[in-house]
Amino acid sequence: MTAYHGGKQRIGKKLASIIVKESINIAEDENFQITGYCEPFCGMLGVYKHVPELFISEDLCLSYKAGDTNGSVIKMWKESQKGWKPPITTTEEEYDKLKTKNNSALKGYIGHQYSYGGQFFNGYAPKYGKSSNSSRASKNVQDIATELKDVNFKQTSYKHFSNLKGYVIYCDPPYEGGWSNYNDVKSKTAFDIDEFWEWCDEMAYDNIVFVSSYKAPRGTECVFSSTHKLTGDDRNMKNKQRTEKLFLLY
Questions:
Q1: Residue 109, phi-psi category: left (phi > 0), alpha (psi -120 to 50), beta (remainder)
Q2: Is 220 helix (H, G, I), strand (E, B) or coil?
Q3: Which of 123, 187, 204, 243 lies at a CB distance of 3.0 to 4.6 Å from 249, suitable for a disulfide?
């Protein structure tokens, strides 16, 4: 798996297991028919890559959708589904040139894998001691794309999925108060978190919605929590911890 700031590689398998288990329980208790699975903030698929096989083990054949506003990341997954292989190394010169290029599969891979802290083009990481060889990450991208060959990827905002019904929806949005590159704008205010939670509440009428976040509106059910150290290029983050939670709306 390629590096990705805010990704769920460490706890992705655990989150996937909880999402599927909770969804199956709701389906059985509430006579809810699950027709599909969607991640509107798919990123590097740290959770997604574990989900389909879990639903298959429950004898469920579903439709699979994924979206992200980062067009290069979406191109990376779509091209990898067709057999594209990410490079195993890149130079700082090549890295810098890609910053200003149009969206591409190469830009999606290099922009995260070779960036400090996994943040999109946040500085050439090998300058700070990270290996310039990414053969393992390249293979992981290829393997995941092959396993998820039936997922429909789309460059879009989460609101594109507003018409879904009967879906299990997992959201990993930019966290409130944290830096994000949502809509390719690095800002702490570019993402409207209140509007997002309103959308989740509306979607929960016809779907099962899960959200990863540090906090949620009062009354939202927390089904999992995990404490971890903060990472990134902000010195104030060092030695600090936060408890990340998984919330359920239904």
A1: alpha
A2: coil
A3: 204
* Per-residue pLDDT tens listing for the chain (250 residues): 454 445 577 799 999 999 999 999 999 999 999 999 999 999 999 999 999 999 999 999 999 999 999 999 999 999 999 999 999 999 999 999 999 999 999 999 999 999 988 889 999 999 999 999 999 999 999 999 999 999 999 999 999 999 999 999 999 999 765 444 444 444 444 799 999 999 999 999 999 999 999 999 999 999 999 886 655 555 455 556 778 899 999 9
SS (H, E, C) 93-117: HHHHHHHCCCCCHHHHHHHHHCEHH
pTM of the model: 0.89
Q: Residues 204, 208, 213, 214: what is their CA dihedral angle, to the nearest 10 degrees?
A: 80
Strands (E), the chain: 36-39, 63-68, 152-155, 167-171, 208-213, 221-229, 241-249
Question: Using an 8 Å Cβ cutoff, are 196 and 209 in contact?
Answer: no
Rounded to 5 degrees, φ, ψ at 166 are 80, 15
Place of tokens 């949620």: 216
Closest to 148 in 3D by CA, of 54, 53, 70:
53
Q: In what order do the strands lie in the sheet with 221-229?
A: 152-155, 63-68, 36-39, 167-171, 208-213, 241-249, 221-229
User: What residue type is 249 in one-letter code?
Assistant: L
Contact status, residue 211 vs residue 47, Cβ threshold 8 Å: no
Where do runs of H (alpha helix) occur along 149-225? 193-203
